[in-house]
Amino acid sequence: MNEDYNDIAEQESKAATIAYHCVRNTILEDIHANGGISQREMMALMMEVTANIAFVLQEPEFLELLRDSPITSVPPYWQSAPFASLVVDGDRFKKWSDSIINMSDEKFDDHYNKQYQCWKEGLHGKDRKEKPREHWVGMKAEWEDVNEG
User: Fold this and answer.
1) pTM of the entire structure?
2) Burial 67-78 (b: 16+ CB within 10 A, else e)
3) Domain containing residue 2
């Protein structure tokens, strides 16, 4: 086997591990178990997640491009949990996730709308003062360079 194949296989193995433990074994599994996602939908979802993670592991510059763009960066209302469910007591994590799930619609909408407004105004990403349109043009040029190469 050549070195490139071994590296790709290693990245795919890492991606599958990340997808299984960090995506599937979350509240997503509860949703799936309760019939909110069929077995086929879950399979397709996890295959897509695994492929995307593998790609990012193989092409870390692409992740930086996504993260740093005001068009594709994660909106500020998409926040991390206060702790990793992989390493904390299940009851503690469930209490935290239930607090969000059971939040009143009014409280949730208020929080979401404030965060969304910041995102819409371009107040996110690495440099909150950067003009989104200028950044998008630069990112598009970078993507075209990658596609030509």
Assistant:
1) 0.66
2) ebbbeebeebee
3) 1-58
